[in-house]
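2024-03-11 09:14:02 INFO receiving multi-entity request
2024-03-11 09:14:02 INFO entity count = two
2024-03-11 09:14:03 INFO echoing inputs for audit
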Amino acid sequence: MHIDWWTLALQTVNVLILVWILGRFFFRPVMAIVAQRQEQATKLLADAEAARQDAQTARGEADRLRAEVDGQRRTLVEAAQEAARAEKKTLVEETSREIAKMRADAAAAVKREEEAEQEALLQRVGGLSVDIAGRLLSRLPPDVAFRAFLDGLCAEIRSLSAETREDFRVSAASGRQAELVTAFPLGDADRELVSGKIAEAVGFDLPLVFREDAALGAGLELRGATTVVRNNWRADLERIRGELGRDRHA
Amino acid sequence: MESPLSTKTVFSIGPVPITQPVVVTWGLIAFLALAAVFLTRRLSLVPSRRQAAVELVVDALANLVRDTMRVEPAPYVALLGTIFLFILTANWSSLVPGIEPPTAHIETDAALAIIVFFAVIYFGIRAGGVVAYLKTFAQPTILMVPLNVVETFTRTFSLIVRLFGNVMSGVFVIGIVLSLAGLLVPIPLMALDLLTGAVQAYIFTVLAMVFIGGAVSEARGSHQNERK
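2024-03-11 09:21:47 INFO inference complete, emitting structure
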């Protein structure tokens, strides 16, 4: 077996050259691109991990802010509810007071209106009574009614105290004559009758000045300087009205 | 029929005879260089199909180096990858009519084995230094130094003989069959020769990895023991 040393040497050099060529133009570029891709993938993964960490941090911060906002919202809502409750209470109290005041005013107005209506009713009743009495009186003989009122007047005079009756005398003596007011003019006979009856009642002669006042309705009225003695329908109606008013106020 | 053990001189450059294996090797170098340039001319981070296939091959080779040698493959891929590709293309060059594979001649196999022999020494020294590398011959005891030295040469010789014997025998058998039988009879043997060629390329490369890896790991271990 023969070994060609030149061939051995040349083949050794050839293989070494091939090692250099393939290493330079094949293996190194391919491994470099693979390493570069791996490096980029690693970098991308690191970036993704960093982005994930940032996102987690941001999410934590957002959660914290959301919780803070929720807390503030709850506080504001509770404060608003408390203010609304207080406002409602104030409004209810004011409204209650106004309602009570309006109710009291309404009650007073109703009371005043009722009183006015009753007053008007009494006026109408009084007027109606006077009309009725006048119509009834007109059916009686005038002298009968007159004499009845005259007797009543005399009885009233007699019921006066002695001092009061004496006042009539004193007044007459001082020139202030007593007036006898009737609802219609009296004739001489009636005047004489009246003067006699009154003198008898007061116990002395009392000069009278006769006057007429249709408003009396019927009856007489003796007016002294300090004392008035009435016995007529107007006086009676006023007394009745006064009695009715007292009963209503009682 | 010519003897497979003889080398035919194609031409001479002065006193240097340029034999047929050398010429075929030059052709293979040109082919592999052009293929390398073609395959790596437009590499990008978003790979094309061709680039993906190339990366797959290189990545598989790197993983083989990593798994076999238990080291980072970058410094070793160029040498071991080139040995594999050269032996593979050299073995398969027998398919081209009139071409005799360079690995069927012992000079080519010896050249490859010599390169592996010096690569073992280079990477061993590079890993742990000269002293640490020399100390690996005294492992596990100093009595093993003669045996380890002899083993260094014998395993290189075994690389030569294994590759030469397998490839040369294939070529020899095909030549005999071709001379005895018709034109199509050797085709199954040629297919078998393809398989044998690939297997031999793989075996030679893996053995080179084992030898270099052993030297590197032992030198590193020895170096670390020195530092302790």
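2024-03-11 09:21:48 INFO post-check: The radius of gyration of chain A is 65 Å.
2024-03-11 09:21:48 INFO post-check: The CA atoms of residues 180 and 222 of chain A lie 5 Å apart.
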